[in-house]
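Bug #77: duplicate submission created two jobs. Keeping one. Sequence:
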Amino acid sequence: MVVTAGAVLTSTALAVPAQAAAPKAPTIVAKGGYVMNNGTGTTLYTKAADTRRSTGSTTKIMTARVVLGEKKLNLDSKVTVQKAYSDYIVAKGASSAHLIVGDKVTVRQLLYGLLLPSGCDAAYALADTYGSGSTRAARVKSFIGQMNSSAKSLGLKNTHFDSFDGIGNGSNYSTPRDLTKLASSAMKNATFRAVVGTRSTKQKVTTKSGGYRYMSWTNTNTLLGTYSGTIGVKTGSGPQAGYCLVFAATRGGKTVIGTVLASTSVSARTSDAKKLMDYAFKK
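Kept job's structure:
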């Protein structure tokens, strides 16, 4: 009987297929992180995912989303670059698309300038163009109001904007979960996807005198071209924000999307993002 039972046990054990070990959750340097399956919305990883933090230029995802949500939007309409935009860059020491005063640039080009080199001048131009009011200050305030209305409509309960570019005034914040949801929504727009998936671009713009010049912009998201399947989306950094990255990649028909906030360096946020995507694709 003992031998028979042993034989039965052995044959049963052999009949059970070996289970693959579940992937071990990675350790990241960033203070906050979140990843989800973009197709199903399933959460795959969290680290302080609902803790509010400064977001730096990842704010510009919402800037772009508000513009792209405009009714009767004409991406080829032209905007004249104002001195106020370049003065702002100088005053803030902000990242720039190097827009030149008097040039006429299209809204589409402003989106490239916003999302690739993370131009705060491009952000200002868009806010000034798509906000409503008789003064520039009123238009900017109106545009930021639209950003907050959009956040509310998306159910982003831990998100608030007080700037059009992430250079906040004390109450510009979000969370890894909220930013990931925002990016997922923005990525549904074909123009947004095309822009954030572009590594570099050369754009012909009209000068003040009626001639033209070329503007060259390179994407600050180094995952493009270095991490297989990367499709976006946006970097951010700042004294309060640290180093942030909202990222997305597609492999084998599966898209994962996520955010790291308050990492310690450009290389650390990139490493954090790669770890989280590697883990998410195994889940």
